[in-house]
Amino acid sequence: MLYGQTLSHRIDSLLYLRIPDTTGPGAVFMVAKKGKIVYRKAVGKANLELDVNMQTGNVFQIGSMTKQFTAVAILMLEEQGKLQLTDPVSKYVPGYPAGDKITIHHLLTHTSGIKDFTAMKSLSSIAQKEMSPEAMVNFFKDEPADFSPGERFSYNNSGYVLLGYIIELVSGNTYENFIQHNIFDKAGMKNSGYASDRKVIRNRAYGYHKKEHGYVNKNIISFSVPFSSGALMSTANDMFLWQTALNKNLLLNANSTQKLFTSYTLAGGKPVYYGYGWHLRDINGTASREHGGSVFGFKSMGVYIPEKDIYVIGLSNCDCISPTELTREIAGLTLKAE
């Protein structure tokens, strides 16, 4: 019991040091160890207009953590024999520029060289439009490549949008439905889904930006734009169920799961320290699997330390509160408490 109290007290102190304004937007942090939740805390407000306190069960947009789900969906289709990671993009999207040289593996590892649509100046022209996956792909496909496939690692949202489009083409289902039926339902993630500003979503945390004069509501974006690179919503508890499902090979077999967490290399042999949907790093010298997310009004971060079976998730409802380093610090404290 002393272990739990000591760790909780240390994490509490860290949270209130990093997020001192509990009257503004906030965050939820959770720590699980050896399959059990050992810490869970909500700070700040879920809704400023109604002065509603944050709760640990609040639903957040998770931004680029969506890429983990997209990667798992691709490997599911590989297990079903519907695609291979060595397949060229041109097999599914005929006429895609350099599509015979860019493989699904390149898309998964951010080594395709495709222009990242978030860096395109014309993005504002479509940000609030309802875009089909095909229209999104057409939006960036004719942009000049940044480099040859396999030559460099460059974090890339376009590659993951293309993966979502391939999931739809190969499965005959929408990305939203594929993820819902094959991942959320199987893992018991009842409070996760494809993001929407129109649906009434129980326990939704509202997103905010911080300006010089105070907080404002987040910018509106059509979720069809980030699509399979960043359009999912979840809760801290559901993300723990996600990690549990991965650990127990409930979604993929052990061989496919290992592919997610393999550090791949560039054509010249240089490591990229990225698997399929996860950065492969370390916390104080102990190997970790990490990914964050950022979308208007929200930021997220998840860290898993396989050697000690420690999972830390941080979700915030203001892009002024980045949980990235805080989540890593909490993971470090949990490791130290071993």
UniProtKB/TrEMBL annotation:
Q: Which InterPro entries match?
A: AmpC-like (IPR050491), Beta-lactam-related (IPR001466), Beta-lactam/transpept-like (IPR012338)
Name the UniProt key words of this record, in alphabetical order.
Hydrolase
Q: Which SUPFAM superfamilies match?
A: beta-lactamase/transpeptidase-like
Could you say which enzyme class this protein belongs to? hydrolase
- Please list the GO terms describing molecular function: hydrolase activity
Q: Which domain of life is it from?
A: Bacteria
Organism for this UniProt entry: Terrimonas rubra
The name this protein carries in UniProt is Serine hydrolase domain-containing protein
What range(s) does the Beta-lactamase-related domain occupy?
A: 25-318
Give the EC number: 3.-.-.-
Q: Which Pfam families match?
A: Beta-lactamase
